[in-house]
DNA sequence: CGACAATTGTTGTCGTCAACAACAAACTTC
DNA sequence: GAAGTTTGTTGTTGACGACAACAATTGTCG
């Protein structure tokens, strides 16, 4: 079993009300995370929540969420892609992509064009206003990225991208 | 607009059917991610999905998900915590924690004990079988962590934990 | 050629999760 | 004691991942 690693910070920390049978630790200061501190998944989850919230807030004025941004970016860089290709590349299920494209198409950012060579599939394109809008989205996304840099540091952000490059 | 950075890899790559008005890029090889490669959020999201899937699979035999594990770990390390304290510490909404605890209590892993000093709050404790079970969960979680290490490398995993330590 | 398998887009359901809103009970503050 | 706050609870909404099933179309292979 190895030795137990029960408490992460051994700071005495002035307890609020260390009652015996009562609920302790009103604030989150003296609460130890125990084994959680050694788990990459926990840190990654918390960071991902923070980063998405900042993205959503920064792109709030244009009402674009991270997934929508990723879809638009890939279509913009690879016009004519099929829905399957986009879904595969982004790790989105094709069933989910249907709804995403429905929304983007209603907003006149994306067009589904019936393919001539394969009548099952749709060739995805940005509309002219979609191209203009995407340019603005990219500027806002770059601003969001600067928030990330300010939060964890320039070098750390680049190291992070390098470490996780295999998952993109 | 700066110069467009449309394709990430400039490899010729034998196209499947580079039709003009047709859907291209059946497989996900030649599809460029464009601006997404520079976004930490995208890489983090993909990594987080992978890491959670591995966690769920590795802890599949005991049917414990990441959030449940984090709740059990914190309660185990800080017996008597209130629901508010756990929710705050883990960044979970207290409304969500209610359902999580309902499930854990039905499985006899956790007990809600009415606090004497504050009759609103509950003091959270692991049951004896809960303690035993958590020990097993921790062993499985450590195994999952070794999967992470095998995936991104030992040094990279530690660097990652260090970079994201501020979010725990 | 023609039957059978595979693919593409679509619809639907299910479960997880974050974000709110509202509420009763209990506590705090003044 | 009245007003405001906190705690736990219930409910709703929406994004999201995971499946399953289906029609239309295409590919395969005997």
What does this structure look like?
Two copies of one chain form a homodimer. By secondary structure, chain A is mainly alpha-helical. In chain A, 52% of the residues lie in helices and 6% in strands. The first copy, chain A, is built from six helices and two strands; from the N terminus they run H-H-H-H-E-E-H-H. A two-stranded antiparallel sheet of chain A has the order 1-2. In chain A, helix 1 (40-58) packs across helix 5 (128-152) and helix 5 (128-152) packs across helix 6. The longest helix of chain A has 25 residues, at 128-152. Residues 1-21 of chain A have low confidence and may be disordered. The first copy, chain A, binds a DNA duplex (30 and 30 nucleotides) through helix 4.
Topology, pairings included?
The structure is a homodimer of 168-residue chains.
Chain A: H1 40-58, H2 66-77, H3 83-90, H4 94-106, E1 110-114, E2 122-126, H5 128-152, H6 154-163
Antiparallel strand pairs in A: 1-2
Helix pairs in contact in A: 1-5, 2-5, 5-6
Chain A binds a DNA duplex (30 and 30 nucleotides) through helix 4.
């Amino acid at each position: 079993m190895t030795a137990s690693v029960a408490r992460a910070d051994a700071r005495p920390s002035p307890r609020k009300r260390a009652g015996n049978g009562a609920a302790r630790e009103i604030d989150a200061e003296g609460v130890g995370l125990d084994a959680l501190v050694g788990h990459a998944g926990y840190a990654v989850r918390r960071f991902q929540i923070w980063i998405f919230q900042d993205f959503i807030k920064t792109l709030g004025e244009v009402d674009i969420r991270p997934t929508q941004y990723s879809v638009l970016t890939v279509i913009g860089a690879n016009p004519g892609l099929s829905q399957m290709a986009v879904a595969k590349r982004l790790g989105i299920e094709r069933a989910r992509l249907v709804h995403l494209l429905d929304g983007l198409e209603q907003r006149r950012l994306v067009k589904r064009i019936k393919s001539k060579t394969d009548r099952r599939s749709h060739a995805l394109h940005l509309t002219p206003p979609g191209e203009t809008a995407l340019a603005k989205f990219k500027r806002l996304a770059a601003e969001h990225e600067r928030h990330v840099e300010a939060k964890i540091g320039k070098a750390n952000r680049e190291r992070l991208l390098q470490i996780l490059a295999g998952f993109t």
